[in-house]
Design brief:
two-stranded antiparallel sheet, zinc, elongated, three-stranded antiparallel β-sheet, 6% strand, 10 helices, mainly alpha, single chain
Length: 327
């Protein structure tokens, strides 16, 4: 059951031969008495009736007492061997444990021609079958069967009447017309879909723009522009402009805002120091923004200068009053 000795490249140590089959050990096992055998060989030996002894020394041996020798198996599997098909011409030399992988693709494996039964190498099978008379005869027979089937089908087809043909042509014409109609409807639907997509994108852009331009709730935006009627409205107007300093929201009217700024200035600019800083902050914020036209900015600049002059005059009066008090 072991490996043929002539497979191996070079000489083989006699200690690696099975004592039963006299071949190189395959799946080597060791008996308690120290002898090595192929597992299949010792199994066959011990399966005989009333046989419980070693083939070499006749010591008592059972199948349960033999042990595999892994080191010996690995040693033998690492030996180089020639292909089992070397007698048929294969020159490949590989390790023993790779033989089975090689045989899956070896071109020198014996195969039988399906036409004549000749034993040929696998790589020669195609060229052999090209000239094989048995293959040619079987192919002709298959062609005859196929031709007969086609003739039968042809006879069945030609048995259709002219009325059947007209009916089929009518159905075909109807289907073609329906197909054209569906294609036209599809084109119309695609065109409408493109229009809807454009409108959807436009609406989405407008929505995003409107969201970006919504006033901050903390600005206390007054859609009626009633700034300047109360002191608190001065701060609200300043905050509204400051929150959108470089980009005026489109829903805010420039003229109405400027009128509100002017109203705040006219009403509170000279009401004493109580609102002086609020008015100054409002005018300065409005002047720093890009909300207003050049003419309006010119007026805002005038307001700032007027506030500064009024502040200087007030400070001078306070200084003079203090001097008189000291004197």
């Amino acid at each position: 059951m072991g490996y043929e000795v002539h497979w191996f490249i070079g000489s083989i140590d006699p200690n690696l031969l099975c004592g039963i089959c006299n071949a190189v050990l395959e799946d080597a096992v060791l008996t308690p008495c120290g002898h090595s055998f192929c597992y299949a060989c010792i199994e066959t030996w011990l399966s005989r009736p009333s046989t419980v002894t070693c083939p070499e020394c006749r010591a008592n041996v059972t199948l349960t007492t033999v042990k595999p020798v892994l080191s010996l198996r690995n040693l033998i599997n690492g030996f180089e061997v020639g292909c089992p098909n070397s007698k048929r011409g294969c020159k490949v030399i590989i390790k023993l444990d790779r033989v089975n992988y090689h045989l899956e693709t070896c071109g020198y494996i014996s195969v039988e021609c399906a036409g004549c039964g000749t034993d040929v190498n696998r790589f020669e099978l195609a060229s052999h079958q090209m000239a094989c008379e048995g293959i040619a005869a079987s192919v002709k027979e298959e062609d005859y069967i196929i031709a007969s089937e086609r003739l039968t089908n042809l006879r069945f087809t030609t048995s259709m009447t002219s009325a059947d043909v007209k009916e089929l042509l009518s159905k075909l014409s109807s289907l073609e017309f329906e197909l054209k109609t569906l294609k036209r409807d599809l084109q119309i639907a695609e065109s409408k879909n493109r229009v809807l997509e454009r409108e959807c994108r436009k609406a989405r852009d407008e929505l995003l723009k409107a969201r970006n331009e919504l006033p901050d709730s903390s600005c206390d935006y007054d859609p009626e522009y009633k700034y300047g009627h109360t002191p608190q409205s001065i701060a609200n107007l300043s905050l509204l402009i400051a929150k959108n300093l470089l980009r005026k929201p489109s829903f805010i009217d420039r003229e109405m805002i400027f009128c509100a700024v002017r109203r705040c200035y006219d009403k509170y600019a000279r009401c004493g120091t109580e609102y002086e800083h609020d008015i100054h902050m409002l005018i300065a914020t409005a002047f720093a923004s890009n909300w207003f036209s050049e003419n309006q900015r010119h007026n805002l600049h005038y307001y700032l200068q007027s506030i500064a002059r009024y502040r200087n005059m007030t400070n001078n009066l306070k200084y003079t009053a203090n001097i008189h008090v000291l004197n």
